[in-house]
Amino acid sequence: MSFIGNIIWMIFGGFISGMGYILGGLLICLTIVGIPIGVQAIKLGFGTMVPFGKEIVATEKAADPGNVILNLLWAILFGWEVALSHLVHGVLLYITIIGIPFGKQHFKLIPLALAPFGRELR
Fold it and tell me: Contact 79/21 with Cβ under 8 angstroms?
């Protein structure tokens, strides 16, 4: 089911959204200072491309002070907009019965969009 869900997801916007995150992350990585933020944007892009069958797991470094500070900066500068987008799209998809599995995937991506540092997709 996750393979079919990912194919449908990619056809109806997941590929374009994921490529937007990845290209934005690569552009941010061009600056030396932006590499940590760019890597997280790329990670979010891959998670947006194929969310079915994946889960967000906190790593042992999630509570490190550096990750906490970066998560706060991320949430203030970028994360709230991405999380709000996932929330709106998830609510809109829940209107139809067919869209419920896809809405669940949007809701699953909200914590990663708010605080990507110290988390990974498995």
Answer: no
SS3 content of the chain, % helix, strand, coil (to 5): 70, 5, 25
Tell me the two tokens of residue 104: 């669940």
Beta strand segments in 15-66, E: 56-58
The pTM of the full predicted model, rounded to 2 decimals, is 0.83
Decide: 84 and 118 in contact? Cβ < 8 Å. Answer: no
pLDDT digits (tens, 9 = 90+) for 88-113: 989 998 998 988 998 898 898 898 88
In single-letter form, the type of residue at position 63 comes to A
Cα–Cα distance between 52 and 119 in angstroms, integer? 17
Q: Which helix (H) or strand (E) holds 119?
A: strand 119-121
Asked whether the beta carbons of 58 and 64 are under 8 A apart, the reply is no
What are the extents of the domains in the chain?
2-121
